[in-house]
Design goal:
Layout (H helix, E strand, L loop, with lengths): L2 E3 L8 E4 L3 E2 L4 H21 L3 E2 L2 H4 L9 H8 L3 E10 L2 E10 L4 E11 L3 H15 L20 H14 L4 H17 L4 H13 L5 H18 L4 H15 L2 H14 L4 H13 L3 H14 L4 H13 L3 H14 L2 H17 L2
Length: 352
Amino acid sequence: MLRLVYTRVQPIRSIAVLPFRDLGGGTADSFFADGMTDAVTTELAKLGVSKVISETSVAKFKNTKESVPQIARALGVDAVVEGAVLREGDRVRITVQLIRADIDRHLWADSYQRQMTDILALQDEVALGVAHAIKLELSPGAPGRLTSPKQVNPDAYEAYLKGRYFMQKLDEESFSRARDYFQQSIHLDPNYAPAYAGLSDYYVLDDELPPSEALPKAREYAQEALRLDSTLPDSHTSLAYIYFYFDWNWSGADQEFKRAIALGPGLARSHRWYAIYLAAMGRTAEAVTEAQRAVDLDPTNWDALYNLGVQLMRAGRVAEARPYLERFVREAPASLYEKDIRDLSAELARIR
């Protein structure tokens, strides 16, 4: 095993995991590399790194020619993680390195190799390696501390990765494909909790079915995911959403949002949705804080930028809100946000 360690001067408080390069060259390997990027990002966020940029904001730098310092400035981080994945038969090899952004210096590098059935343990090893390289203290019993993961059917894992990939595309056809891949993953490995979490997310976000049909399905899959693995932050977030929007169970929603954030403090979606809940409860100052946290973690997410602008407006902080809302109007894709852009443009013109 290769390991290089260098002394650093300033502590690293924020990082971005750049899209891992796939060294296999096939379509399946591309899904796999993207999935590993997402997985390592999520595990670092669960471990308690102060700021881990969401994969949705980092994805724009896939195959980029920009330098590490340029990327770090754009994302507002101290360091970046670069990695490469090679899958050969039933074995996977990952090489990863930590780079200090301000001096463009390699601080640490390591390589890991495991059987495909142990892919979840491999993800954890990589995340822990990065955490130790930045000297993150993991207290025994802390919510984000990793445990020994179960083995997973490799085909089920690959189907799950494809489901996550198509969920991010947002168009109707891709969304349906995501559902099919999550169902395939469950069929191949009925004990793989993230696949149930993926299906829960699908039904939470589905706008084809009425909420009276979609949200009970979302609840069922979220609860099954948590029965199999109670440490999944996304499933707690989904339950919080259902309690809030469907059940009007305000205290239950608050409890689930807090649990999700405790398990994954660096996951942007929990903060963004919690901000919306807090605003509905009249807790305006807290809503702004959570919305700002979501933008810090996912700085190019249009929903996060829009939400922060709206929460600042509701707090009477119009001058602070305007840059976020104007950027949304100027840069958000019209194909996805046509009505929001139109309505917001009119509102900004009215208060100018």
